[in-house]
C-alpha cells in the first residue's frame, strides 16, 4: 500500500542525522541600512547568528510615488 511506504519514508527522515544542515536566515535590509546594520538589527531581535549561518538578505525599498 502506498500509505505504508510513505509512513516508513517519513519515519526514516525523522530519525536521520542531519548534522551540518544549516537553514537559511532571512534578514530584511532597508535602503537606508548597511548590511552590517541589518544583521545587527536582526540579531538584536532574534539573538546572535551562528558563524556558519546561511544568510539571505532581502533588500526593501519604498515604491516611489507616481507623478510626484
Order of helices and strands: HEHE
Mass-distribution shape: elongated
Mean pLDDT over the full residue set: 83
Computed over alpha carbons, the radius of gyration is 20 Å
Helix/sheet category: alpha+beta
Percent range of helical residues: 25-40%
Q: Span from first to last CA?
A: 64 Å
Strand fraction band?
Answer: 15-25%
The number of helical segments is 2
> Could you give the count of β-strands?
2
What is the oligomer described by this structure? Answer: single chain
Q: Major sheet: size, sense and barrel closure?
A: 2 strands, parallel
- In the predicted model, the low-confidence regions spanning at least 5 consecutive residues are none
Query: Spatial order of the strands in the main sheet?
Result: 1-2
Which helices and strands appear, and what pairs or packs with what?
Elements: H1 2-15, E1 24-30, H2 35-46, E2 54-60
Parallel strand pairs: 1-2
Tell me what you see in this structure.
The chain is α+β, with helices and mostly antiparallel strands. It has 2 helices and 2 strands, in the order αβαβ. 38% of the residues lie in helices and 21% in strands. A two-stranded parallel ribbon has the order 1-2. Helix 2 (35-46) links the parallel strand 1 and strand 2 (54-60). The radius of gyration is 20 Å and the shape is elongated. The chain starts with a helix and ends in an 8-residue tail after the last strand.
Which features would summarize this protein structure in a list?
alpha+beta; two-stranded parallel ribbon
Q: Brief overview, please?
A:
The protein has 68 residues and is of the alpha+beta class. The chain is built from two helices and two strands.
